[in-house]
Amino acid sequence: MDDVRASVLSTIGNTPLVKLNRTGCRNIEIYVKLEYYSPGFSIKDRIAIGMIEDAERKGILKKGDTVIGKTSGNTGIGLAIACAVKGYKFITVMSAGNSMEKTVMLKALGAEVVLVPQQPGEGPYVVSRKDNEAVEKKTDELTEELHAYRPNQYINPVNYLIHEYTTGSEIIKQSDGNIDAFVAFVGTGGTFVGISSALKKFRKDIKCYPVEPDSAQFLAGKQVITTRHKIQGGGHAVKPPYWDESLVDGYLSVTDDEAIDTARHLASKEGIFPGFSGGANVAAAMKLDKTMDRGSIVVTVLPDSGLKYLSSDLYKF
Ligand code: PMP
């Protein structure tokens, strides 16, 4: 019994970093961190267990407590796993615009799912800023009513610190520090801020680029045309509270079609099956091919799996 984990929680993180071989890029090499290898099949397992154990250490979360989370699904799935293993009741509040695969999985993991109907005019598989605000309001109300503990990923510094200490340092170790640039799609900003902090502390000249939907280049300071894009998990045109401009070397954006086409390309040509934001991240990384020197290494993350979007049009041809 020398290679056994004490519980599924010990299988979170330490995900593989994989070279892409069929990008068609002339100058750069792209490496992707396959975050769907974690038990909840997303990068958010890392912050879920991080926030729960931080609250336990601080005495904020105690046996018998209820945990509540506002999520686009993935953080909820991570929290549901952590709460199932540790014995907390878990309620997740999410927009009906998120894919039903996440809802099904959350329920299977023992979570109570509160679905907030979409706002008038908003469509399925799209979570707009208005939808996001409605979910926030509902979560606030329920947290107060139930005296629940809310590990709020939007303001909890554990969100980015976990990425600095785990995802970021794993990338440095796995690549032997051979990295020239990093790109990441921004939701709460935890992934971008945490990993970029680790990389910049390691070597100041590693370039870091946040990724936004083409129609909502809010952080880049451009006019937001619409937050009704398909890249679930971010692009809500809000500035994360711990956003750190000094980490940013430039902004990248991708259209829905670029994200989808790239996800399909990864699936059919590289055997890698990402969600929308993974497609967006690689599409954005590929844009650096035009400006970076030959042999440059660009790293990004694939936040979750295409299996979470089977009912959407991501892989419907
Ligand atoms: N992609 C997906 C699928 C996500 O669920 C999230 C998180 N909501 C992100 C990207 C963005 O990550 P972060 O919140 O760390 O910016």
Furnish the topology, listing elements before pairings.
Blueprint: E1 17-19, E2 29-34, H1 44-57, E3 66-70, H2 74-86, E4 89-95, H3 100-108, E5 112-116, H4 129-146, H5 158-174, E6 181-185, H6 190-202, E7 207-213, E8 252-254, H7 256-270, H8 276-287, E9 297-302
Parallel strand pairs: 2-9, 3-4, 4-5, 6-7, 6-9, 7-8
Antiparallel strand pairs: 1-2
Give the tags.
317 residues, alpha/beta, Rossmann fold, 2 domains, six-stranded mixed sheet, three-stranded parallel sheet, 8 helices, 9 strands, binds 4'-deoxy-4'-aminopyridoxal-5'-phosphate, pyridoxal phosphate, TrpB-like_PALP_sf, transferase, transferase activity, TrpB-like_PALP
How does this model look, in words?
With 317 residues, this protein is an alpha/beta fold. The chain has two domains: 8-38 and 159-309, 3-Layer(aba) Sandwich (Rossmann fold); 44-146, Rossmann fold. It is 35% helix and 15% strand. It contains eight helices and nine strands. The strands form two sheets. The chain has a six-stranded mixed beta sheet. The protein has a three-stranded parallel beta sheet with strand order 3-4-5, sandwiched between helices. Helix 6 (190-202) links the parallel strand 6 and strand 7. It is globular, with a radius of gyration of 19 Å. The relative contact order is 0.16. The structure holds 4'-deoxy-4'-aminopyridoxal-5'-phosphate (PMP).
